[in-house]
Amino acid sequence: MSISKKVWNIPDLPVYSLATYDRKSKVNMNICTYVTAISLKPKLYAVAVYEKTKTLKNIKNSDICVLQLLSKSQFNLIKKLGQTSGINFDKENYLNNKNFLEEWENYKVLKNVSGRILLNKKSFQKTGDHYLFIFNVIKSKSYNTDYLNLKLLSEKKLIRI
What we know:
two-stranded antiparallel sheet, 7-stranded antiparallel β-sheet, alpha+beta, single chain
């Protein structure tokens, strides 16, 4: 017996937003699911970032970013953060106008996330249509376990899996 899903679409992955900052500390955020912890000591994370994006430009020019585990209530941010380019759209302005931003560790981040991880860039390499970044974890904070996942995005017809 087989199913129609691709094997990489079987796991119900968490949905994150990577907050990156330009040289003027202006925040941009994306949506990412190619994310995983890769070491306990030291604590390291791997995050894949799509090519030709504002997120990629920012993170290549800065060592610090904040990985945010989105909560289920934030599914409505997927179109603006993940399906709209930060090159042509001011995501910080949009998020400010909606009162969705706050500061954490002196960085602009989303309110009401399930968790946050302050990351320091260690290395990166091009891997197909993404760049794979390895980050050291500086600090993390968990708020709740009601996190957004691919299954909910599929149910809301925001993605097809």
